[in-house]
């Protein structure tokens, strides 16, 4: 059994996925399928993934973070709420370069703009109690000069596509809720919005909003 070869394959897979779809989580089951394609030992994925995490950290300065996503299913076709149905394990790559150095030497406009948009959206959700109807989010963003129908914003580009990207990256969740007035799309915070460094960025954004409102 070639543990080193399998480890290298997982490392390549994670780097490729991260390059193709930055910040979009990779499911553990995808990695398990890659690892067990020719080997059937049940404990093998855990060993190989742990080795890949160590290699990514030591060679590339990247932390392969495990995140538990809440999997939900509708209780019935007409249900207005959803019930938990277990967790799904996923992995994302996170740079270990200190924040200040990353801002000075690594982050480019292409990286900073999507992260800035994520901070704005999550900040709006937090100020609204972590969950809002989609229409309310658009109203608040429009007050900041961000229009849902703008597909060529000078900083953020296509606004609706950016919202969908945040859903894929698990910063926010989007679900359809039935009500007496019909179906409504509701947005709330997802797992990656709870990352400590990201929470710090959001806190700074909210504090700036409060300070500007007071001045």
Automatic annotation (TrEMBL):
Task: Cite the InterPro entries for this sequence.
Answer: MAGE, MAGE_WH1, MAGE_WH2, MHD_dom
| Gene Ontology cellular-component terms listed | nucleus
MAGE domain location: 3-215
Show the stretches that span the lipid bilayer.
none
Descriptive protein name = MAGE domain-containing protein
Q: Taxonomic lineage per UniProt?
A: Eukaryota, Viridiplantae, Streptophyta, Embryophyta, Bryophyta
């Amino acid at each position: 059994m070639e543990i080193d070869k399998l480890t290298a394959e997982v490392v390549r897979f994670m780097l490729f996925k991260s390059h193709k779809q930055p910040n979009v989580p990779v499911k553990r089951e995808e990695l398990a399928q890659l690892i067990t394609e020719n080997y059937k030992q049940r404990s093998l994925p855990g060993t190989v993934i742990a080795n890949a995490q160590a290699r990514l950290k030591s060679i590339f300065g990247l932390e392969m973070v495990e995140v538990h996503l809440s999997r939900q299913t509708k209780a019935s076709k007409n249900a207005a709420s959803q019930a938990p149905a277990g967790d799904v394990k996923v992995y994302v790559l996170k740079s270990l370069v200190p924040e200040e150095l990353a801002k000075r030497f690594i982050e480019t406009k292409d990286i900073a703009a999507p992260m800035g948009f994520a901070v704005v959206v999550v900040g709006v959700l937090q100020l609204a109690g972590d969950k809002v109807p989609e229409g309310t989010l658009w109203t608040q963003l429009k007050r900041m000069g961000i229009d849902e129908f703008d597909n060529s914003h000078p900083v953020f580009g296509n606004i609706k596509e950016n919202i969908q990207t945040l859903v894929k990256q698990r910063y926010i969740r989007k679900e359809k809720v039935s009500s007496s007035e019909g179906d409504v799309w509701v947005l709330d915070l997802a797992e990656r919005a709870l990352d400590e460094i990201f929470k710090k960025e959001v806190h700074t954004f909210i504090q700036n909003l409060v300070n500007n409102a007071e001045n």
